[in-house]
Amino acid sequence: MKQDLAEGGAAAAPDPVDTRLGARLAELRAEHGWSLGELAERSGISKSTLSRAERAEISLTASLLNRLCHVHGRTMSQLLSEVEDEPAPLVPAADQQVWEDRASGFVRRSVSPPHPGLRGELVEGRLAAGADIAYDRPPVPGLEQHLWVLAGALDVTAQGVEHHLGTGDCLRMRVWGPTRFRCAGEEATRYVLAVVRP
Questions:
Q1: Angle subtended by helix axes 36-43 and 16-32, to nearest 10
Q2: CA-to-CA distance for 37 and 137, rounded, in angstroms?
Q3: How far apart are CA 124 and CA 180, in angstroms?
Q4: Is the overall model pTM greater than 0.70, yes or no?
Q5: Which of 3, 6, 159, 161 has its CA 20 to 30 A from that of 136?
């Protein structure tokens, strides 16, 4: 979290991605003409948390960022790509954007960032042992997802059904309601998520 203190007691500098993300979230709110209170009502996130996120004083969790994506009708990759430069057709591994939710032990790499002319994207996800992330709604209703586990074990709940995936297993689904991703083993889980907008 950004409120952590660095050596000597000084506040740590905001993460550059959090700074750009906060500015973009403020822009989107302004484009809709919403006050912080209106956005808080629509997203279920407190005004103080929204304000601190827009000022990059905190890093949003994956669940909270997902709620904001839902309100703005974007996938997480779409929103994160909006704070980066125009995407190139070739994305070297060193240039792939990485976003981390330290509170839940979730690391997300945009392997193939979204592009306005394309509906699909690839994401690499890593969950630490014991990590458990619940999303109360999809960022875009009817989002198509194909989840392929590369290492470890993953429990995924969608449409009220729990699926246990081991290394090499693939789950495909359309996301309409709440979902949950839980690292089921004693070691971290690594997976690829192919996302296709409806």
A1: 100
A2: 20
A3: 17
A4: no
A5: 3
Q: Which residues pair with 106 in a beta bridge?
A: 101, 127
Please report the DSSP string for the chain in residue order.
Answer: -TT-B-GGGPBPPPPHHHHHHHHHHHHHHHHHT--HHHHHHHHT--HHHHHHHHTTSSPPPHHHHHHHHHHHT--HHHHHHTTSPPPPSS--GGGS-EEEETTTTEEEEEEE---TT-SEEEEEEEE-TT-EEEESS-SSTTEEEEEEEEES-EEEEETTEEEEE-TT-EEEEEE-S-EEEEE-SSS-EEEEEEEE--
Yes or no: say if 25 and 11 are a contact pair by the CB < 8 Å rule.
Answer: no
Decide if 165 contacts 153 (C-beta within 8 A): yes
- Measured in residues, the chain has a length of 198
CB distance 90 to 113 below 8 Å: no
What's the pLDDT tens digit per position in 102-111? 889 999 999 9
Q: Residue 112 in contact with residue 122, Cβ under 8 Å?
A: yes
